[in-house]
Amino acid sequence: MSVKLGVNIDHVATLRQARRDSNPDTVEAARVALSAGAEMIVMHLRKDRRHVQDSDMERVRREVKCYLHMEMAATEEMEKLAVKLRPDSVCLVPEEKDEVTTQGGLKIKDKSETLSKIIKNLSSKGIGVSLFLDPEPQDIRNAYKLGADTVELCTKAYAESWGKKNQEKELEKLQLASYLVKELNMSLHAGHGLDYYNVRPVAQIEGMECLNIGFSIISRSVFVGLKNAVAGMKSLIS
Q: Residues 51, 69, 71, 79: which is the catalytic one?
């Protein structure tokens, strides 16, 4: 089965916010990504609104026929927005005020009560819920107990590993984690730091269903265009 590609268009909004202009337009970006083979549009609505704005989510939901996946912090504000915006699914991710990008998976043990409440509420509204996790067995088991549908494995350590031996070690952790996810009958996604040079081994992990990729695709699109950048990534993971 072909691995699906979720294209994260956050950094189209990052470029637009540099001028607080209307271009480049996230709606247009979503349409181009879909026309090039993406199966899912991913948007991270951060608490600080540094890139994607509420209006971006609203317009993509209203104007683009697509599977919309919303990344969000596990807060009451974001929970209410998800219920209002009605994405097809959400991924609960850790979010720190001064971080440049997400630094790792959720620490479930620290906020299991909050996560349980949000997962239950969103699931009752027909919104799929995934948790962004490091490839740690106990975190995956906890996600299952909390009622999440999907685990998105954080590939940060793999993507940043230096040397073949270290990369293979991190890849093995992801593969072992994937066995547990599938054993628990949950959907398996992965993402963070994946690019055109390191993505293929992750796509080949047994049971992998979807890879969510943004920065490397948007970066390449500056030189080759968004349609070509998405199509190139899709060909690597198919």
A: 71
